[in-house]
Inverse folding.
C-alpha cells in the first residue's frame, strides 16, 4: 500500500534494490548466510523451519547449477498473505530472491504462483521485466559479476503443490506428486540440482534484515 507495484522507480525511491547493491558490493555470500542465521528468520509459510539452516544446506553443495524457488502456491481457502505481498510489493520478493541466490550460489530462480492469483502473476511478471530492463536481473548485476535471472511458473489449482517437492515436480512439467525425502531439495531439487525453496513472505523479509541487521529483526 506504500508504493505503485507496477512502477520500479517508485520502489527504488523507497530504497528498493539498495540492499542488493549493498550485499553485492560489501558482503561475501557467507556473511549474508550468517546474518540470516543470526536473525532467527523462520519459514513464514507455516512450518517455521529456520531459514538460515536451509540456506546453509544449499550453500555447502558443490558449485554448479543451483536454483532459488519462491513458493507462492497459497492453497488454503480464503488465504491471501502471499497474494497481498505479491500484488502489493513484487520487487521486494525479487530482491529477496536475488540476495538468496547470491548467498547460496544460484543463477536461476522461479516464482511459483497459483493460477487463481492472476493479478499477482501479472504484477510479478511486470516487475521482472522492469528489473531486467534496469540491469537488476541478468548478467553482471551492479557490475559485481553476479548473474541471476528468474521467471514465473503458474500453478493449476492443485492444493498439493504447496508441498515443496510436489511444487518442484510441477515446475519441471510433471505430475505434482510429492517425493520421498531424503534426498531433500537442498541436495537434489529441480532437475536433480540443489534448490532453495522459501515462502513469499520469507523472501520478502530478507532485504529488510540485510539492510537493518539481524538484531533489528530479532527485536520484533
Amino acid at each position: 500500500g506504500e508504493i505503485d507495484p507496477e512502477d520500479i522507480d517508485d520502489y527504488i525511491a523507497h530504497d528498493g534494490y539498495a540492499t542488493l547493491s549493498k550485499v553485492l558490493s560489501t558482503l561475501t555470500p557467507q556473511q549474508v548466510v550468517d546474518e540470516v542465521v543470526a536473525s532467527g528468520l523462520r519459514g513464514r509459510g507455516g512450518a517455521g523451519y529456520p531459514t538460515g539452516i536451509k540456506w546453509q544446506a544449499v550453500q555447502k553443495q558443490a558449485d554448479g547449477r543451483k536454483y532459488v524457488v519462491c513458493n507462492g502456491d497459497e492453497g488454503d481457502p480464503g488465504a491471501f498473505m502471499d497474494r497481498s505481498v505479491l500484488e502489493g510489493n513484487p520487487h521486494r520478493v525479487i530482491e529477496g530472491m536475488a540476495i538468496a541466490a547470491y548467498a547460496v550460489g544460484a543463477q536461476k530462480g522461479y516464482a511459483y504462483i497459483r493460477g487463481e492469483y492472476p493479478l499477482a502473476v501479472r504484477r510479478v511478471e511486470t516487475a521482472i521485466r522492469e528489473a531486467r530492463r534496469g540491469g537488476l536481473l541478468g548478467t553482471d548485476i551492479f557490475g559485481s559479476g553476479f548473474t541471476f535471472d528468474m521467471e514465473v511458473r503458474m500453478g493449476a489449482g492443485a492444493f498439493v503443490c504447496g508441498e515443496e517437492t510436489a511444487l518442484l515436480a510441477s515446475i519441471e512439467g510433471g505430475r505434482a506428486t510429492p517425493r520421498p525425502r531424503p534426498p531433500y531439495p537442498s541436495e537434489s531439487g529441480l532437475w536433480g540440482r540443489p534448490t532453495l525453496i522459501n515462502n513469499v513472505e520469507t523472501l520478502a523479509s530478507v532485504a529488510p534484515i540485510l539492510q537493518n541487521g539481524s538484531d533489528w529483526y530479532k527485536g520484533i
Strands lie at 67-72, 108-114, 149-155, 195-199. The first strand starts at residue 67 and ends at 72.
